[in-house]
Amino acid sequence: MKLWAAFFKLIRYPNLLYIALTQFLLQYCVVAPVMHSYGEEPSLSVGQFILLCLSTVLIAAAGYIINDYFDINIDIVNKPDKMILDKVISRRWAMAWHTILNMTGVSLGFIVAWGTGQIYLGFIQVICSLLLWFYSTSFKRQALIGNVVTSLLTALAVVVVGFYEKQIYHSLEAIMAPVGRKLIQIIGVYALFAFIISMVREIVKDLEDMIGDSKDGCRTIPIIWGVLAAKRFCNILLLALQVTIILVEIRVWMFGWYLAIGYLLLFVQLPCIYVYMRLKAANTAAEYHKVSSLVKLVMLTGILSMIFFKLFL
User: Fold this and answer.
1) Which terminus has fewer CB within 10 Å in the chain: N or C?
2) Which residues are paired to 89 by β-bridges?
3) Dihedral of CA 190/196/199/204: which sign?
4) What is the dihedral of CA 247, 296, 131, 155, to 10 degrees?
5) Is the distance from CB of 176 to CB of 183 less than 8 angstroms?
6) DSSP secondary structure string, 206-238?
7) What Cα–Cα distance (Å) separates residue 98 from each residue in 91, 105, 247?
8) Residues 110, 119: contact at Cβ < 8 Å?
9) Alpha carbon distance 190, 94 (integer Å)
10) With 60 as the cut, is the pLDDT of residue 127 above it?
11) CA distances from 3 to 14, 15, 37, 132, 231 (A)
């Protein structure tokens, strides 16, 4: 039992559940209602969607394993009490599980792509797998590049479901059709939200891990630019997020979605302001960790807003 508990902790099972929830909400609270409103059906069957979701989750799990594999020296400094590799699970077994999960995830991606008749879509999962590998081996040790790659992968986890809709991949005419435009607009907004909020969290995590990162030779934003500059960059991102949400609120106001506006104000915008205040006052690793947890909560409340498309469409 101890071994299995360590394994699930290693693959960050709460984050995997978050990914699965995000894709479920996008498929059944955004894509399906939008398609039905135009008298059409989603391209993915229930079985294909489950396989695609499982593919994404397995590749993400493999990414968490390989990240810890290359972060052992950093974790010895930053969180020695929470280490799993070399304490509970050996490096050899970690690499074996990484390979198994990666190969299974990529294979499932190609199965779904083959089922839709667009085999090239399977390479999306290959690209994600490669980015996770290079992120762990080199990108994360470079200023800004690692943060951008992680944030792009977070956004990709949101939009990958949309890539399998024929209104998006079939032709330019399909994209320009009303249903295609609407899907791209909605999915694009959530992808932008996921990217920005993920960037904020990644920089806050860099602030939290500064000591271990510096000893391992990492060149993260707080180390290269300084703590104050890193905080200011986060503030700019939070401001951009607020502006994006306000533009969305103006748009949905025209449709009379007042409940959705109230939700965004109370559970996304105000928490973002609180994140700004807590980040401004934070100085220790423990305080940065609390800010990181708050940002993760905002990510969740933002994604949960997809439910309103199910309610109002």
Assistant:
1) N
2) 85
3) negative
4) -20
5) no
6) HHHTHHHHHHTT---HHHHH-HHHHHHHHHHHH
7) 10, 11, 41
8) yes
9) 33
10) yes
11) 17, 19, 48, 25, 38
What 3-state class would DSSP assign to 209?
A: coil
| Cβ neighbours for 284, distance < 8 A, ≥ 6 positions apart | none
For residues 288 and 100, give the distance between their C-alpha atoms in angstroms, rounded to a whole number.
34
Per-residue pLDDT for 171 more than 70? no
Res 159: pLDDT: 85
Banded pLDDT at 22 (limits 50, 70, 90): very high
Sequence-separated (6 or more) residues with CB below 8 Å from residue 309: 29, 30, 33, 34, 186
Residue bearing the bigger pLDDT, 70 or 258: 258
State whether residue 88 is helix, strand or coil.
coil
Helix axes 285-304, 178-208, angle to 10 degrees: 170
Q: What is the rounded average pLDDT of the residues 91-117? A: 93
Q: Is the pLDDT of residue 55 over 90?
A: yes
Residue that is written with structure tokens 């059409």 in the block: 40
Looking at residues 82-91, what average pLDDT do you find?
80
C-alpha angle 198-204-209 in degrees, rounded to nearest 5? 125
